[in-house]
Design brief:
Strands 1, 2, 3, 4, 5, 6, 7 and 8 form an eight-stranded antiparallel sheet that branches. A two-stranded antiparallel sheet has the order 9-10. The chain has about 180 residues and is of the alpha+beta class.
Length: about 180
């Protein structure tokens, strides 16, 4: 009997659903991109100043608002450069081949900032206009798991690499002092 309980316990623990793949998190049947960037060389105020200077220059980012330690805005018509990371037109996950729209939130705390991107969708701009919603396209089992389909996982990886490069201010030359 003891072994039966042990076997059931091991089986249940080994059956885990995918709730995170390449910084895409699934919570309440909604996919969000969440990534934390740590910059030990900057204080919280310095990070806020750097982000204040950098975010308005990012293509595809608009309506930036700042409140306390939180930046909010919109991502509109952001072209994901999947080819830079090895993707090819026609064989890469279809949604990321079209411009991305989403909500953007950046939270600053100590010497790090957290990037949250929600309500992610990609859309074709030519007729017939088609919207690809990440919540329905990247999940299975009625939105309770992120798909482990190879093409989808690779597409999420390309998107993660692109967003990391786009929003990692440590890679950017941010010195405004001439």
């Amino acid at each position: 009997m003891k072994y039966l309980f042990l076997l059931i316990f091991v089986f249940l623990n080994s059956y885990q659903t995918e709730k995170e793949i390449h910084n895409f998190h699934l919570e309440n049947q909604t996919i969000q991109y969440i990534k934390v960037f740590e910059l030990k060389e900057f204080s919280e105020n310095e990070l806020i100043d750097k982000l204040n200077g950098y975010l308005p220059t990012v293509s595809g980012v608009s309506n930036i608002h700042f409140n306390g330690t939180v930046f909010t805005g919109k991502i509109e018509n952001l072209e994901i450069d999947f080819k830079k990371y090895g993707g090819k037109w026609g064989t890469t996950w279809i949604p990321i081949q079209y411009p991305m729209n989403a909500n953007l939130t950046i939270q600053v705390k100590d010497n790090r900032y957290r990037l949250l991107i929600s309500n992610i969708e990609c859309s074709m701009q030519v007729p017939p206009r088609t919207v690809f919603d990440f919540n329905s396209m990247a999940t299975v089992k009625r939105g309770t798991e992120i798909s482990t389909n190879k093409t989808i996982v690779q597409g999420l990886k390309y998107t993660d690499q692109f967003l990391t490069d786009k929003f990692n201010i440590s890679n950017k030359q941010l010195d405004n002092d001439w």
